[in-house]
Task: inverse folding
């Protein structure tokens, strides 16, 4: 890669996605870092580190530095960003401009730290963009008009809801109910219903394979293995999609209620626009089966999943360079670094 000039990065709680304006997505890896707990040395980042989750000996730990949409470990976040930027830029001579999207829950001080990490990794200029703005851009919505659009982004750590008009956010909210919470709810349900302990990866597999918040026409089943809490021995059981739906019901209602509260706070003209335009769903968590139908039933507004739900934000960060001058509100704190 000879001249990477503009780089868009979606620094998600579950995955980091890097997009170049002309080349599209060039990197997509889990936001995981494996460290030696004794020396704090970083052993691996991304795909390699992900493979270690739940399988590490005592002295190695695989951590998600952005868990739950906040920076739980500042130093690791910095190392992770640098690693990904260097991986994309290689021995690039031209210093790139970088547009970063960070989890909505992070504080100004933390954002500053992320910006500095990107600058230290070789950026000429760093911009921060708000997630819903990036998600809308990435999904191909023209947000420059005085017309309201509602975005629901469900990632790993947070679900973010925003109403956008004229390149800026009019109303928004963020709740810590998203993909990770779904997985945790599945782990609890399997424990309570079957006295079986399963790991987060198994819970995620169940969610993707037979997960639903609406119910399938024909029930689905999936065989899983875990440890029986009473005998302490391995056991195989069959889980049904109905069971997963029940496990996810409480989280589903929390998301629907957050949507409702944003609609209530939205100015009437924009509510009319949203009724016409529908609700756009982005983020991996939005891919759970039946969420669109649940939203439509609850809000009487059409909901549609973006064509590339997981990549929308990253695509938007790269596209944002074209409208950099107009995105006054989306670019929360533009900063220039030598
Ligand atoms: N097909 C799917 N069905 C349900 N959930 C999914 C699916 N694919 C990914 N996910 C979930 O999406 C979440 C990650 O979404 P993503 O948008 O990448 O998060 P982030 O922006 O926080 O990095 C994870 O919890 C993952 O389990
Ligand atoms: Mg995201």
Result:
């Amino acid at each position: 890669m000879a001249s990477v000039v503009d780089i868009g990065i979606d620094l998600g709680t579950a995955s980091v996605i890097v997009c170049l304006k002309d080349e599209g997505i060039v990197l997509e890896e889990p936001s995981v870092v494996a460290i030696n707990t004794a020396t704090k040395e970083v052993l691996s980042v991304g795909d390699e580190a992900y493979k270690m989750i739940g399988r590490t000996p005592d002295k190695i730990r695989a951590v998600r530095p952005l868990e739950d949409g906040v920076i739980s470990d500042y130093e690791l976040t910095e190392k992770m960003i640098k690693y990904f930027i260097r991986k994309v830029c290689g021995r690039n001579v031209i210093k790139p401009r970088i547009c970063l999207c960070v989890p909505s829950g992070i504080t100004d001080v933390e954002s500053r730290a992320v910006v500095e990490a990107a600058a230290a990794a070789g950026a000429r200029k760093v911009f921060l963009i708000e997630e819903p703005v990036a998600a809308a851009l990435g999904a191909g919505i023209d947000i420059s008009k005085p017309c309201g659009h509602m975005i629901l982004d469900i990632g790993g750590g947070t679900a973010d809801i925003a109403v956008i008009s004229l390149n800026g956010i009019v109303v928004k909210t963020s709740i810590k109910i998203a993909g990770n919470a779904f997985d945790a709810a599945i782990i609890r349900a399997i424990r309570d219903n079957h006295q079986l302990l399963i790991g987060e990866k198994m819970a995620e597999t169940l969610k993707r394979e037979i997960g639903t918040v609406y119910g399938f026409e024909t029930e689905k089943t999936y065989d899983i293995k875990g440890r029986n809490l009473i005998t302490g021995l391995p056991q195989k059981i069959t889980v049904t999609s109905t069971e997963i739906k029940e496990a996810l019901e409480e989280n589903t209602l929390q998301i629907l209620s957050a949507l409702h509260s944003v609609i209530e706070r939205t100015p009437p003209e924009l509510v009319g626009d949203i009724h016409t335009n529908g609700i756009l769903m982005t983020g991996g968590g939005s891919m759970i089966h039946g969420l669109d139908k649940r939203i439509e039933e609850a809000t009487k507004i059409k909901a549609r999943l973006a064509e590339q739900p997981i990549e929308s934000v990253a695509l938007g960060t790269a596209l944002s360079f074209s409208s950099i001058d107009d995105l006054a509100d989306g670019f929360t704190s533009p900063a220039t670094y030598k």
Summary: Confidence is low (pLDDT under 50) at residues 329-338. The longest strand covers residues 168-175. The chain has three domains: 6-133+313-336, 142-177+252-306, 179-247. The CA atoms of residues 118 and 312 lie 21 Å apart.
